# Entry
Amino acid sequence: MSGASKKPRVLIVTPEVTYLPEGMGNMANLSAKAGGLADVSAALISSLFEQGGDVHIALPDYRHLFAHGADSVLKKEFKNIREKVPQERVHLAEDRAFFYLNAVYSYHSWENIKIALAFQREVINNIVPRVKPDLIHCNDWMTGLIPPMARELGIPCLFTIHNIFTVKRTMAEIEDRGIDTAAFWKHLYFIRSPANYEESRETNPVDFLVSGVFAAHFVNTVSPTFLREIIEGRHPFIEEPLRRELENKYNAGCAVGILNSPDPSFNPATDRYLALTYGPESAAAGKSANKRHLQQLLGLIENPNAPVFFWPSRLDTIQKGSQLMAHILYDVVSRYWNLPLQVVFVANGEFQQHMRHIVWQFNLPGRVAVCDFDEKLSRLAYGASDFVLMPSSFEPCGLPQMIGPIYGSLPVARDTGGIHDTVTPIDVDNNRGNGILFETFDAQGLSWAIDRAIDFYRLPQKTREKQIARIMSESMSMFNHSVTAKLYIKLYETMLQRPFINP
# Structure
């Protein structure tokens, strides 16, 4: 990082990472991913490392995940990495809790708590004392006990909220897993105000996520608008302690929103899962070829002129607006029967069966396809579709509304959270905008937005192609890891320049 006589040592603590830069511990193929956190961690580490920064990462030792698919040389290195590379920048937390996991997270909440406590114990007791960082960057509830420790030690700490999920456990339970909370208990956030350590140890649960916010020197969410929505109390499902502590940080100038960005592999010019790769100037031909391939694959009516709407998000009952789409699905398809409008779902979730029932009930198999999530099929759908559907009730960040425009597939989305920060209404006359937004979370709003999408689709071909080429080019420059990493690095520099006084 610029402007410093001594390179600050940054320790990024994360349960996930997609990749590491070549030369960083000879573990470039290391990967443990469950969501966007893995991509952000990879982007930050790579940017810092490429700039010559003294960057370190603390990560659970997912031995089974790391060895899976690695060549024999890498498998041997995973086993003895610390012995072979004494100056290793990759610090693997050792505990059987995550040695043999098949995924980053378990389906059982009790097991995830055990994993989180084991990970944090190793970071607090072993990794931080060994690395001696100048700044620590923690992510989500699984690292929420580290900011209180950092606060006690006077180490500047950034806490990033990717997901608002949290857990609550007493200090007695935490200490039973080897973490000495007595050393930093005053910086933890309890369910009720603690009288003293002894009084609270066994009966006053600690909120992991809120503790991270409360103790960290700076906090960020993964979109500026979602941060404001939380502070303004616009999401009743967010508990008051989290809202209040984020408001306190925001009012103190210590809370910001930094958008995530898609993985660099989301690029229609190089995506190996497309039937035909394409760029902004060849989008029409690329879309047509990929659309035919998708239609053949899914048994849809083969028509390159059919407008295709792609649903990329999980079919849940709370966040993603599945109920809105179910309410209008038949009406929308029948309204544009002669086009013929098509809808492709590539998503799992409890609402999937309901969508399948609608397709069966109204005999829509040639016009609507409901598929289990598959990475290859999802990427093909981005390349084949004309629009991406995201009628979310809330959205901490969201990635499909960024990925879609990169592929020339315009988002049809509700104006909330990260969607508000990344989608602007299409304005052909003024040559700006990248999608269609509706405000009220109801079926009528979504139906109206789909109508506006069809209005755009019916524009003269040259006009539409010009707008899609512009949107693709702008999106590639706006939605990438380089932009995200620069914002985090700027925040690091702000934190390192600011004096911190412990209470």
